[in-house]
Amino acid sequence: MSLDDARNFVVKLRENHEFRKNALQTKDLEDLALFLRGEGLLFDQRELIGAMAECMAQLEQQMGS
Fold first, then answer.
1. Is the N or C terminus of the chain more exposed, i.e. has fewer CB atoms within 10 Å?
2. How far apart are the C-alpha atoms of 11 and 32, rounded to whole Å?
3. What is the rounded distance in angstroms from the CA atom of residue 10 to the CA atom of residue 50?
């Protein structure tokens, strides 16, 4: 599992509309996991939360600037 993969996932969701659409169109968690593996993204929920928290902190900094 990889925090870097979770970070890459968050960035791709934010910046790549096609990737986001494909991720959201998965049917269930198993389908999402297959999609993510196909994209070479391997991370667990804890790593995803860490990546999302980092993203939120960056947004807060940008809004405060």
1. C
2. 17
3. 10
Phi/psi-derived region of residue 10, left when phi > 0, alpha when psi is between -120 and 50, beta in every other case: alpha
Question: Would you say 14 and 56 are in contact if contact means Cβ atoms under 8 Å apart?
Answer: no
Per-residue tokens: 23: 């991720």
In 3D space, the residue among 1, 3, 18 whose CA is nearest the CA of residue 55 turns out to be 3
Q: Are 29 and 65 in contact (CB under 8 A)?
A: no
CA atoms of 65 and 51, how far apart (whole Å): 21
- What are the pLDDT digits (tens) for 7-59? 999 999 999 999 999 999 999 999 999 999 999 999 999 999 999 999 999 98
Rg (CA), the chain: 13
